[in-house]
Amino acid sequence: MSRSSQEIRLAERPQGRPSGRTWELATVDVPEPGAGEFIVQIEQISLDPAMRGWLNDVRSYVPPVGIGEVMRAYAGGRVIASNHADFAVGDAVRGLFGVREYAVSDGKGVDRLDLDVAPMATWLGALGMPGMTAYFGLTDVGRAQPGETVLVSAAAGAVGSVVAQLAKAKGCRVIGVAGGPDKVAWLRDLGLDDVIDRKEGDLLRQVRRAAPDGVDVYFDNVGGELLDAALANLARGARIAICGAISTYNDETLAEGPRRYMALLVFRASMQGFLVTDYLDRYPEGIEAISQLIGQRRLVATETVLEGGVAAFPDALLGLFDGVNTGKLLLKT
Ligand SMILES: NC(=O)c1ccc[n+]([C@@H]2O[C@H](COP(=O)([O-])OP(=O)(O)OC[C@H]3O[C@@H](n4cnc5c(N)ncnc54)[C@H](OP(=O)(O)O)[C@@H]3O)[C@@H](O)[C@H]2O)c1
Asked: Over the stretch 269-316, which tens digit does the pLDDT of each residue have?
């Protein structure tokens, strides 16, 4: 049966915030699968802050998306035709399929999903790459211990909401930072000990008020001013896990470095960056830990699912920078 597939390609590298000119919407025919291949009908596309970095022509942990190429994206879907021994028609799968309606795959880097364990959206969120980022960043990089004070930024987002709940489950005192009263209320309902609204400003003083004895672990998703505020309020021996810096991703000029880095010396603290893909072989451990907590109702997996299909991708991606999401942001095809 002949099918066509809409896809989003990179038309032009953005300066600052991506615009309409950044993208091109195209329609292609979906081929029949070759030997050892299968076709996936994509149902949900993952929107990730890292996508903004993948548009820059700089040396990084993966090559940039090329001009004219389909935008790289994690996605989940169903196998609809297969010549692959390990993937059958009807299988639910996730992988780096790109921003498109149908993908041809040879199975490399593709996981089959057990939808009896969790819905596809959760396999892309709390049990997917963001959840693994939260788990390994908090346990291996932040090394959070019971009784310690954990500060997490973008705490209502995909990674942050899992970090906050994992830290609570570990017996930490957890302070979240999020944008706006609705997210603040949502995080309070999740049981966080304190929540800071970043939109109220004066972050240094807000962190000091919430953590009068200092922060033992700062899980940094945003960089910028909040990183400085955390540095100014460290406890002795603190660990800062550098997960991301979304506040800087659309900056055209390189932001000034952290102004208060000497706090690392004063408080004998450390700051370490990490990449979730370095933990691929330990994903089963992270999935087991998080799914157990979900089963015990001690961790809520939350997703914001946008409608509009592949054509809505350019606006949907900007939603991350505008903070439209609570939990994992996904786009339904
Ligand atoms: N190291 C790794 O391997 C790895 C893997 C995955 C993700 N990450 C990083 O983890 C971070 C979170 O990713 P995610 O997928 O979970 O995204 P997310 O938190 O679900 O969404 C982004 C959130 O960032 C906040 N935000 C946007 N602009 C901001 C600004 N200027 N200042 C402060 N906050 C801002 C918004 O929340 P509020 O409106 O509530 O502030 C928004 O909802 C990102 O930095 C991402 O690059 C790293």
From this structure: 999 999 999 999 999 999 999 999 999 999 999 999 999 999 999 999
How far apart are the CA of 187 and the centre of ligand 1, in A?
A: 15
Give the pLDDT band (50/70/90) at residue 63. very high
DSSP-assigned letters across all residues of 61-80? SSPPPPTTSBPP--EEEEEE
Pocket test for ligand 1, best of 197, 200, 246 (most atoms within 8 A of CB): 246
C-beta of 156 in contact with ligand 1 (< 6 A): yes
Domain coverage including residue 98: 3-125+302-332
Between the CA of 315 and the centroid of ligand 1 the distance, in Å, is 16
Task: Return d(Cα 209, Cα 189) in angstroms, integer.
Answer: 20
Confidence label for 254 from pLDDT (cuts 50, 70 and 90): confident
Is the sign of the CA dihedral 290, 293, 299, 305 positive or negative? positive
Residue 41's pLDDT is what?
A: 98
Place of tokens 């009784």: 147
Q: Is 302's C-beta closer than 6 angstroms to any atom of ligand 1?
A: no
Q: Is 118 in the pocket of ligand 1 (CB under 6 A)?
A: no
Closest CA to 243 of 212, 211, 274: 274
What ranges make up the beta strands (E) of 263-322?
Answer: 270-273, 303-306
Q: Is the pTM of this model over 0.90?
A: yes
Q: How many domains does the chain have?
A: 2
Angle separating helix axes 283-295 and 129-136, nearest 10 degrees: 100
CATH classification at residue 266: 3.40.50.720
Q: Find the 111 Cα to ligand 1 centroid distance in Å.
A: 24
Question: Is 76 domain-assigned?
Answer: yes
